[in-house]
Amino acid sequence: MAVGSFPLDGGEWFARHEHGAHQLAWAPHGVLAVQAAGRTWVLPSTVALWIPAGVPHATGATSAALLRSLYFWPDRCPVSWDEPQVVAMSGLLRELIGHLAQGADRIPADARLRAESVVLDLLRPVSVTTVRAPDPTDPRARRVAEALRADPSDGRTLTEWGAVVGASARTLARAFVSGTGLTYGQWRAQLRLQAAMPLLAAGATVSSVARRVGYGSPSAFVAAFRRGVGVAPGTYFARAGGEGVGR
Predict the structure, then answer these.
(1) Is 125 strand, coil or helix?
(2) Residue 73 to residues 3, 44, 46, 56: CA-CA distances in angstroms?
(3) Does the CA dihedral 1-74-22-230 come out positive or negative?
(4) Alpha carbon of residue 61 to chain centroid
(5) What per-residue string of b and e applies to 135-154 under the rule 16 or more CB within 10 Å gives b?
(6) Residue-by-residue pLDDT tens, the chain, 247 positions
(7) Is 6 helix (H, G, I), strand (E, B) or coil?
(8) All residues at 6 or more sequence positions from 14 whose CB lies less than 8 Å from its CB, including other chains
(9) Per DSSP, which regions of 52-96 are E strands?
(10) Distance CA 175, CA 155 (A)
(11) CB 12 within 8 A of CB 67
(12) Strands of the chain, DSSP E
């Protein structure tokens, strides 16, 4: 096992690449984003992403972050997940990774092997759903998507958007389904969750985030988050020690 640390500025990305080793990507500070297998994961410090060897991916930061990557040699690794997997970051796992990040020259070989073995024992998958809002292929629907990325709280209907981009509501509806695999309503909900995640990870309250991404009430936002991700925001962004995001 090897550990690398890489400071990232907000918006900075490592371009698409792959490794001969399995990777566990985690940010003890800031928020990571990983694109792989046609999906995007937004990762606060409470979770990490297991990326199997040979899987092409791009890694970046939605805000200033420290990327801490663990690399596992496949021929000596008992973990056999063959797809990217979200992993819970317990307090003990955090401390062990920090311990191993000191470098091999500062830890006796036998002690390092024991610590690495415990790290592997602590890798626990989290049942969450990937939030994805791919760009439509139709240029008119893509204009709508770009406007909503700039302002996720924009509540215009497809009929209203059609007047802006020169297409009927029915045409735009078909374009979203054919180009993204999602209805317009599903796509917009996913986009709003993508926009909400960095804000929640930075410590914003559920109430303020709900307003900023277009929900009329915190309860409506929490319900949408639970439908889209599989858990409530307070669970996904739970702080070490048991505190969740503010309400």
Answers:
(1) strand
(2) 12, 25, 24, 17
(3) negative
(4) 10
(5) ebebebbebbbeebeeebee
(6) 899 999 999 889 999 999 999 999 999 988 888 988 878 888 888 889 999 999 999 999 877 889 999 999 999 999 989 999 999 888 899 999 999 988 777 889 899 999 999 999 999 888 777 777 888 999 999 999 999 999 999 999 999 999 999 999 999 999 999 999 999 999 999 999 988 988 887 788 999 999 999 999 999 999 999 888 888 888 877 643 344 444 3
(7) strand
(8) 6, 58, 59, 60
(9) 57-61, 65-72, 85-88
(10) 19
(11) no
(12) 2-8, 13-17, 22-29, 32-36, 39-43, 47-51, 57-61, 65-72, 85-88
Whose structure tokens read 């926009």? Answer: 195
Residue given tokens 């199997």 in the structure block:
52
| DSSP state letter for 171 | H
Cα R_g (the chain), whole angstroms: 20
Separation in Å, CA 14 to CA 58, 144, 191: 6, 28, 23
Contact 209, 196 (CB under 8 A): yes
H or E element that contains 89:
none
The encoded tokens of residue 44 equal: 């606060």
Which tokens is 191 given? 């986009």
Orientation angle between helical segments 218-229 and 184-201, nearest 10 degrees:
100
The CA-to-CA distance between both ends of the chain, in Å, stands at 39
65: its two tokens: 């972050």
